[in-house]
């Protein structure tokens, strides 16, 4: 047998990638099981949350009070082995309460100097609870951190720990005293995950599991270093031309100026930018590995279309007046792909 230079190496690299992906898939099955022991009846929410972390992104959890948003974030921090911090966003919260501040210290001989005290943003998993309750000035303090994984304070640029993820929560019904998130910040969230009410069977199991003498506790199933390695592996997974075409068709079809669907042209004021396509590329790969597959499919694109697009699109005034919902427009886009 004659070995062709380059071909043998490529085959070896492919076999190594397959082996690594299979190992990661089995490990992620344990992660999902560990989260599922604590978070009951929210399988799709858990899947989308894990997809976000595996893709290296940030997520926005939207749901009414009492559905376990805070519990989910705490559980993910423990299961993933991440250094987690929680900040309760309030109208009087200042940027320095998140980033940190400089304090004046007096040393030996009366010499004074400034020392920077790091804020809660210097962690691996930051929970921004009820993020829309803080002022726009405070919300903007997270923009650079979310996009660049570093912050500029006191004339210095400081790197944040790796990995770094922001998991924000938002209450969709109590809007008094809140500040809507600006489009620039919404675009930084890889997925917007809506948490709905559990079904009757899940709620029954939840009652029995959480009101007894013992309550299930989260246990570590991964480390921060393993999560970083998983994120790197996911970026190396191949994406077929059919999936790439579906992503481009979906994202470009959601822009009123390039759309072919009447529902998009008539109802949308503006559509998603290129960051939505990037989010879909990463998220579909992560979902495939999470399901034990080596490459994503068009079904992954359809499944993730709504959480990727809904916070990157806006209905026009007439559409809102007519009671049109974004889910209906996204549904038309998904049907066009199928």
From TrEMBL:
Q: Which Gene3D superfamilies match?
A: Magnesium chelatase subunit I, C-Terminal domain, P-loop containing nucleotide triphosphate hydrolases
Q: Which GO terms describe its molecular function?
A: ATP binding; ATP hydrolysis activity
Cite the Pfam families for this sequence.
AAA_3 (PF07726), AAA_lid_2 (PF17863)
Superkingdom, natural source: Bacteria
What are the UniProt keywords, alphabetically? ATP-binding, Hydrolase, Nucleotide-binding
- This entry's Enzyme Commission designation comes to 3.6.3.-
EC main group = hydrolase
Which stretches make up the AAA+ ATPase domain? 55-199
Instruction: Check the record and name the SUPFAM superfamilies matching this protein.
Output: P-loop containing nucleoside triphosphate hydrolases
- Stated family: Belongs to the MoxR family.
Q: What is this protein called?
A: MoxR-like ATPase
Organism in which the protein naturally occurs: Muricoccus pecuniae
């Amino acid at each position: 047998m004659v070995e062709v230079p380059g071909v043998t190496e490529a085959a070896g690299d492919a076999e190594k990638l397959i082996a690594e992906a299979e190992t990661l898939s089995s490990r992620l099955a344990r992660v999902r099981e560990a989260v599922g022991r604590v978070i009951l009846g929210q399988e799709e929410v858990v899947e989308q949350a894990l997809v976000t972390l595996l893709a290296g992104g940030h997520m926005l959890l939207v749901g009414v009070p009492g559905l376990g948003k805070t519990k989910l974030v705490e559980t993910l921090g423990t299961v993933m082995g991440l250094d987690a911090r929680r900040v309760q966003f309030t109208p009087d919260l200042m940027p320095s309460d998140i980033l940190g501040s400089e304090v004046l210290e007096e040393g030996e001989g009366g010499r004074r100097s400034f020392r920077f005290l790091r804020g809660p943003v210097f962690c691996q998993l930051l929970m921004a609870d009820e993020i829309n309750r803080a002022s726009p000035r405070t919300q903007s303090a997270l923009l650079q951190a979310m996009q660049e994984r570093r912050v500029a304070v006191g004339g210095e640029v400081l790197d944040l720990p790796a990995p770094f993820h922001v998991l924000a929560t938002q209450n969709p019904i109590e809007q008094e005293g809140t500040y809507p998130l600006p489009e620039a910040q919404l675009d930084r969230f890889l997925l917007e995950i809506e948490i709905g009410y559990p079904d009757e069977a899940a709620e029954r199991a939840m009652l029995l599991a959480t009101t007894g003498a013992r309550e299930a506790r989260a246990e570590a199933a991964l480390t921060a270093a393993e999560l970083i390695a998983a994120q790197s592996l996911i970026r190396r997974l191949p994406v077929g031309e059919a999936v790439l075409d579906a992503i481009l068709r979906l994202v470009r079809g959601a822009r009123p100026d390039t759309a072919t669907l009447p529902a998009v042209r008539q109802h949308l004021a503006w559509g998603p930018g290129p960051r939505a396509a990037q989010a879909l590329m990463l998220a579909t790969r992560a979902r495939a590995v999470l399901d034990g597959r080596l490459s994503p499919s068009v079904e992954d694109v359809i499944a993730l279309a709504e959480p990727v697009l809904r916070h990157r699109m806006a209905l026009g005034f007439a559409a809102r007046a007519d009671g049109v919902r974004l889910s209906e427009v996204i549904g038309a886009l998904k049907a066009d792909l199928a």
